[in-house]
Amino acid sequence: MAATASPGTTASSHGQTPKSWYQQPYLWVLTAIVCGVLTGWLRPGVGIALEPVGTTFVSAIKMLITPIVFLTIVAGIGGVDSLRRVGRVGLKSLVYFQAGTLVALAVGLAAVNLFQPGAGVHARPGELHLVGDAAQYVKSGENQSWWHFLTDIVPSSAVGAFTEGNILQVIFLAVLFGIALKAVGPVGVPIVDGVNRLSGVVFKILHYIMLAAPVGAFGAMAFTIGKYGISTLTGLGRLIGLFYGTSLFFVLVVLGGVLALLGINILRLLRHLREEFLIVLGTSSSESALPRVMVKLEGLGVRRDIVGLTVPTGYSFNLDGSSLYLSLAAVYIAQATDTLLSLPQQLGLLAVMILTSKGSGGVTGAGFIALAATLSTVGTVPAAGIMLIFGVDKFMSECRALTNLAGNSVATLVVARWEHVLDTARVNRVLRTGIPEPEEEQGNAPAPERAEGCPLRGAKSVG
């Protein structure tokens, strides 16, 4: 994305005057969220009527996600000096994603066994009846095989991947297209240049849409509180509190520990992405912040091909928040229905979740579908128990999205360090000042090949 600046930064790398506090976009988004909560709480009818405001904003963002992902990946692959590097980045990303998923599932499993939020509920599975959207999600989960993400990666048509908004299929097409551009040699150079120019136009459109972020966050939050009500939080307060607390522990301790090994402060990274987190909080969709996160990570100096491959792929394969939710919710249902699960049975659930948690990013009801698929596959926990948590899932989906966003941001930095191309000093400088330093402004020469090694140790920062 040549010369694409991150909207909403404190100052630009081109010497623009820093924005005053009242001009900061994150402040307006936060104000809109608070106003949305008050509107939905005090005037539920008005809040429900505001649903189109939030959904229209999210739809406008999603409209640009597939072209941005496609253009970014193609430009990234087209700009590298060898296809071997592309394959190496992809493989390292998948290895890290798998490790992250396993750790997130284990943390959720440990938390729910330690605090046992479902103990004492004594729900009877025979009296639980699946109705409405919950019944549809369970039906979809029962028909979903553990290997579905492998077969779904190939679209039925090239256009269909874009019209359906399937990020995984768009990634597949973009990688093929980028590899083909490199294979044809000089013939593909003008096309790569055109892709870079087109990326600038698309991100300018994104900038215009993001001006409406406060309005979209207000409408989405007012609808959520107006429809589901704050009172619904009290009945399952222990579960919600445990999920939010576990997610916070995972982000600050687990992800924070990973970044500490890189010499980066997790709190500074979270502060740098505060506007994106607020947009996700207001819209309950991590996809709404995907394009801006990619821009900000490039602004930290992360190489374009790494950002282009790691971030979009992470939205399907690195769902830390969804993994925490799966293990915690499954065992909660077992506890609430007095279903005894031995340690081997819980480990069996975890093994199935490693597969069912993949490839569901951006799908409506993805968390419930993955949970239903897990329970249906294992058969030891009644799938009808999903009704016990259906009423508060909307509130937990926001936490899932926030954790997913944090996990993918950290994953991109780890892969960049693993590739020996992360300038930690530059990253910390940007996190301190808020002034982006895109790769294009520092020179775009490819980093020299280095010996493979551990992603967190023994790697030198390069400038």
Automatic annotation (TrEMBL):
The chain crosses the membrane at residues 26-43, 63-83, 95-115, 167-184, 205-230, 242-264, 363-390. InterPro entries: Na-dicarboxylate_symporter, Na-dicarboxylate_symporter_CS, Na:dicarbo_symporter_sf. Keywords: Membrane, Symport, Transmembrane, Transmembrane helix, Transport. Pfam families: SDF. The keyword Membrane applies. Residues 434-463 are annotated as: Disordered. Its main location: membrane. It is a multi-pass membrane protein. It is found in: Membrane. NCBIfam families: PRK01663.1. This is Dicarboxylate/amino acid:cation symporter. It comes from Streptomyces blastmyceticus.
